DNA sequence: CAACTCATCTTGTATATACAAGAAAATTAT
DNA sequence: ATAATTTTCTTGTATATACAAGATGAGTTG
């Protein structure tokens, strides 16, 4: 047996999720439905669903069924995701200022990071995220236009770029680096920094099944922002 | 049935690991052994082992058996762990300089972070980790003496503090914060920084089942060190 | 109409069984 | 003694079966 049956069923489910066919909170086939679709025993179908549930990709509820998990519950480092939620969770006022929305010609490093040809057009946005009207983070983002045609037409006051992108091209992979930098003058203005101070910079590249979606640079003043991580061994 | 059998077996295994009874890479009972010990079917014993394996706590190998996983393979952010390995993986020369090894009286913030009484004695060490004889990271660590009596007698040239501690009091939980700071003068000297530059500071607190083990502060120059993270959705 | 009961669909737990395949030790043959 | 074979122990895959328990809607009863 080259590839086990339970693994085939897992792949089938993952493909449907990654293609966007099954969205967040959608119901996936029940154990009995998979049993007849794939001509396997219930225990085999169950194994596929259980393992994807343990991996955080599905959620199950006795009596109701099995559903595609929401991406929020994904993983530790990706908590660096939605700064709007983070601010609201602190009972602070969230707002954002959109500084740049444009289509530019990709110079070499950006083209390479996005996996497109040099001098081809890519989208660029610069957004300042505020907590109680004070700048907290600058988000500079370069987007592969092939995977998000309407990017420049979005209103990012109501929906963050990350939310928009993950709805249009379900992401399958993300890579981060975190470093400490000294902001340049432009960045100081954006962040309203009168005295120079070190900043935390997160670079994030995200992939979908069709390729690299976007490349973001998130810069926050060291005095106002820190990253948290938490690990438990047990359970 | 209040608590399922497979869950009881999982607890049994976890307790043995957390107590230090079963160390890294030790063998755990086979499916058949658990079957007779707990009077369950092989499938139930198997479920306990499989789920702990999926959780990264055990590793299994067909024909050989099931073993306690090494903590290296634990999780994404904990990769911030062993800087010695990181340097060696880059084919660079690793060395370290031990600056301080002492027993001090805990001032309030340190006592609170360690969960001990103010003015009680705690251990403190300061170590500089070098890559090719250049300072890469300063590790300042405060240790709860109740959980690591021989801490000051160790030779940390051969064994890192983290390795020593996790052998003596198996860790069950870790919490990190990452931030960007400007180093003070003492830190600049330790890191050999002539010009001020922003640094990445990681604060890590680690727990064992008996309480807070230690509290570490890891500082690296922004120009020489960055943190990496990687997330995959698939599989 | 409202409340209750019941049938049905869902996931959850547990067992007994069968065969496959990798690894290592014991046995046998050279 | 060494090499090849066999046995045994391990995990891996797959099925059929049984009963428990949560959720939901249909039908019955008051």
TrEMBL record, chains A, B:
Keywords: DNA-binding, Transcription, Transcription regulation. SUPFAM superfamilies: Chorismate lyase-like (SSF64288), Winged helix' DNA-binding domain (SSF46785). Coiled coil: none annotated. InterPro entries: Bact_HTH_transcr_reg, Chorismate_lyase_/UTRA_dom_sf, DeoR_HTH, His_ut_repres, Tscrpt_reg_HTH_GntR, UTRA, WH-like_DNA-bd_sf, WH_DNA-bd_sf. Signal peptide: none annotated. Residues 3-71 form the HTH gntR-type domain. PANTHER family: MANNOSYL-D-GLYCERATE TRANSPORT/METABOLISM SYSTEM REPRESSOR MNGR-RELATED (PTHR44846), TRANSCRIPTIONAL REGULATOR PHNF-RELATED (PTHR44846:SF16). This is Histidine utilization repressor. It comes from Pseudoalteromonas shioyasakiensis. The gene is hutC.
């Amino acid at each position: 047996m080259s590839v086990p049956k339970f693994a085939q069923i897992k792949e089938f489910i993952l493909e449907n999720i990654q293609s966007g066919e099954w969205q967040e909170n959608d119901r996936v086939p029940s154990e009995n439905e998979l049993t007849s679709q794939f001509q396997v025993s219930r225990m085999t179908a169950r194994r596929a669903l259980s393992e994807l549930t343990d991996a955080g990709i599905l959620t199950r509820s006795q009596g109701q069924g099995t559903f595609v998990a929401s991406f929020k519950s994904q993983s530790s480092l990706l908590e660096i995701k939605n700064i709007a939620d983070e601010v609201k969770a602190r009972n602070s006022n969230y707002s954002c200022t959109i500084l740049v929305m444009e289509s530019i010609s990709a110079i070499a490093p950006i083209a390479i990071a996005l996996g497109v040809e040099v001098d081809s057009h890519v989208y660029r946005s610069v957004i300042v995220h505020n907590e109680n009207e004070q700048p907290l983070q600058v988000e500079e983002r370069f987007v592969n236009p092939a995977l998000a045609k309407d990017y420049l037409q979005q209103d990012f006051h109501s929906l963050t770029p990350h939310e928009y992108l993950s709805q249009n091209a379900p992401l399958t992979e993300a890579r981060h680096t975190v470093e400490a930098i000294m902001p340049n003058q432009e960045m100081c203005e954006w962040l309203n920094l009168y005295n120079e101070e070190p900043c935390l910079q997160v670079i994030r590249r995200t992939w979908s099944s069709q390729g690299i979606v976007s490349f973001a640079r998130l810069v926050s003043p060291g005095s106002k922002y820190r990253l948290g991580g938490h690990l438990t061994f047990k359970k």
